[in-house]
């Protein structure tokens, strides 16, 4: 077992650690120390549970773990699936003395986290992310949600976990397409706040794609450090935390229009980051060479740089339901420079229109 | 229009006023000042909407109010009904710039409040309670929830309203049974923390039952002042706020066993308060004369002092899912004296068993 590194999310009494390392799911002490004494429910999915639930159960030894195994995929991130988790919580007699363990990717973490946020008005949750995307982004920071037919993540809550455990071993079984989707969120940190990390990623991308464990550990740690900083500044996303949504307003529109699950979230975010860069360029904020650099690293990561032709009107309609809309204005995360993003509603709408026409029209 | 009184809930940046008076729903300035500029959705039910939605719409003049009218009754306080509210929120394009107006009794307030708590991870809600129970209790303090087949209010969130407006005119149309149910929660304040108020209630009960507006206004204000104090001390119910649950652990078990909606919440709470008093007496904490006094005021208010015979085993099972359970122990709100309640798990379980056997066995 490699030595684990830890990143702390500093939120006063809601602070918690992210542990990153190899074989951590087999380490009982880590989880036992962070969890309350009452009944525990593991929420996982049909793909992940057969692979990793047995080692979790072994780690917990005699302590009983109830289970709730959901169908796999973004299309199941619904109120109906949430109802299954509530049924399991009632069945397992989980109360405020108990906890939920979310074992899986972003979908499992979001549903299980939201169930924990709302069961008895809030029980503890441990996030045990098993995809790169969940390890670098969705398991950290307390955003939980399910989708509504009207849009992604429209139903949700802020609910910080008690602990996040990112076991690198779980990435061994991750499909290549999902590994690439996770890299989109890793690249995002470079683009919004960390130019040095962007340079590192440009150099080390081949090692990441080859699943070099040391490179992955470093990319996850650096991503979490960046996310920790933004979340600590602004837990409930009234300010700088919204930078983490680079590419997401465009991306959510693509995901919803294509049907939840057709595009992986990371793929849609990658495409959305290209569109944000293009919009920034049309506003004169970003040089053409910088846009090319964005397109290049996304292409090299095996991620899409061409959007589905959902039409300008449909894209506008879906973007209008974005949570960042204020006073009827869609605020966007745009790039003043590489490594320097800004959230703003103060831009020339013609630039956005032109990008939509060029990319999805 | 009588001059309104106001009670302030002091919760730092989440502070808000409760306005109590006659004709307040026709006063546009009150609500407009407290609400954001974006899209508004009124959530009401099929009984209340025809009575009071027109005056609310008139008060808002030109400003558009979208509507979501739910079926009436506790049996509809479900995830499925919540889904209807989410659909209406999406249809009305309510975003973080918008708000929900909950126009109705406790069920409407709880569902609409929970929808507001979780839509886009939290939008503003104005509580416009139209029943005595909602005016003295459920609209104040930020508890929101829907029921699960396993128990009452198991799915919920803490989400403080931006404003509470208790218009006394709405009590004119309240069915007598619901007025009495509301009195159960009023009596509760006397029993848990306000002996002087209990004495006033014993004297003035006839005026309250006759819907004397001045007496009702005073009872609502005094109830809200007591609730405000407990909520300000302990917003998320880790301590003294739990006193507000006097009678609720027993009451929820009765409501769930009888089928949600058969017993009104206030009726079940009244019965639960009798059982809490009986348990306190068996522990030697309360004199027999005090228990008689509890039974008498509840009887005079036209509320039940005999429980349905749901059986000791079923009662125990339902109480075990209570949110106050800690370490497998059901904590109860018990009375050290009239006007002096305590939350505790440290009691002789034989006393509880004996009361269950006597009352529901």
Topology of this structure?
Two copies of one chain form a homodimer.
Chain A: E1 5-9, E2 16-21, H1 28-34, E3 40-45, H2 48-60, E4 65-70, H3 79-91, E5 99-104, H4 106-118, E6 124-129, H5 132-138, E7 143-148, E8 151-158, E9 163-167, H6 176-193, H7 195-209, H8 213-233, H9 248-258, H10 265-282, H11 288-300, H12 312-319, E10 332-337, E11 340-344, H13 349-359
Parallel strand pairs in A: 2-9, 3-4, 3-5, 5-6, 6-9
Antiparallel strand pairs in A: 1-2, 7-8, 10-11
Description:
- 2 copies of one chain form a homodimer.
- Chain A is an alpha/beta fold.
- Chain A has 2 domains: 5-173, Rossmann fold; 176-359, Dehydroquinate synthase-like - alpha domain (Dehydroquinate synthase-like, alpha domain, Up-down Bundle), CATH 1.20.1090.
- Helix content of chain A is 47%, strand content 18%.
- Chain A contains 13 helices and 11 strands.
- A 7-stranded mixed sheet of chain A has the order 1-2-9-6-5-3-4, with helices on both faces. A two-stranded antiparallel ribbon of chain A has the order 7-8.
- In chain A, helix 7 (195-209) runs antiparallel to helix 8 (213-233).
- In chain A, 57% of the residues are buried.
- The A-B interface holds A 37-38, 79, 82-83, 86-87, 89-91, 93, 95-97, 114, 117-122, 143, 145, 148-151, 154-158, 236, 320-323, 325-327 and B 37-38, 79, 82-83, 86-87, 89-91, 93, 95-97, 114, 117-122, 143, 145, 148-151, 154-158, 236, 320-323, 325-328.
Number of helices of chain A: 13
CATH architecture label of the largest domain in chain A: Up-down Bundle
For this structure, what is the CATH homologous superfamily of the largest domain in chain A?
Dehydroquinate synthase-like - alpha domain
Fraction of residues in H or I helices of chain A: 40-55%
Q: How many domain modules of chain A?
A: 2
Strand order of the largest sheet of chain A: 1-2-9-6-5-3-4
């Amino acid at each position: 077992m490699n030595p684990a590194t830890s990143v702390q999310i500093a939120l006063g009494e809601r602070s918690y650690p992210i542990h990153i390392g190899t074989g951590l799911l087999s380490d009982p002490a880590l989880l036992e120390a962070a969890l309350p004494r009452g009944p525990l429910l593991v929420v996982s999915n049909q793909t992940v549970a057969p692979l990793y639930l047995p080692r979790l159960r072994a780690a917990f030894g005699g302590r009983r773990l109830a289970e709730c195994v959901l169908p796999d995929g973004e299309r199941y991130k619904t109120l109906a699936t949430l109802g299954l988790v509530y049924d399991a919580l009632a069945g397992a007699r989980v109360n405020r003395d108990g906890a939920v363990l979310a074992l899986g990717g972003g979908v499992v973490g979001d549903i299980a986290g939201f169930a924990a946020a709302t069961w008895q008005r809030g029980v503890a949750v441990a996030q045990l992310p098993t995809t790169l995307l969940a390890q670098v982004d969705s398991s950290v920071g307390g955003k939980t949600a399910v989708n509504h037919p009207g849009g992604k993540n429209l139903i949700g809550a802020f609910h910080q976990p008690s602990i996040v455990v990112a076991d690198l071993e779980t990435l061994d079984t991750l499909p290549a397409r999902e590994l690439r989707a996770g890299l989109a969120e890793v690249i995002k940190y470079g683009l919004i706040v960390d130019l040095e990390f962007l340079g590192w990623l440009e150099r080390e991308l081949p090692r990441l794609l080859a699943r070099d464990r040391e490179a992955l550990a470093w990319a996850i740690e650096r991503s979490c450090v960046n996310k920790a900083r933004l979340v600590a500044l602004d837990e409930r996303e009234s300010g700088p935390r919204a930078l983490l949504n680079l590419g997401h307003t465009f991306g959510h529109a693509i995901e919803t229009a294509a049907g939840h699950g057709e595009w992986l979230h990371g793929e849609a975010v990658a495409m959305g980051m290209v569109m944000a860069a293009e919009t920034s360029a049309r506003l004169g904020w970003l040089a053409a060479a910088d846009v090319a650099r964005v397109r290049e690293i996304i292409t090299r990561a095996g991620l899409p740089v061409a959007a589905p032709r959902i039409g300008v009107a449909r894209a506008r309609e879906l973007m209008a339901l974005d949570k960042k809309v204020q006073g009827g204005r869609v605020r966007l995360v745009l790039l003043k420079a590489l490594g320097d993003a800004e959230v703003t509603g103060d831009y020339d709408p013609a630039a956005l229109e032109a990008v939509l026409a060029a990319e999805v029209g």
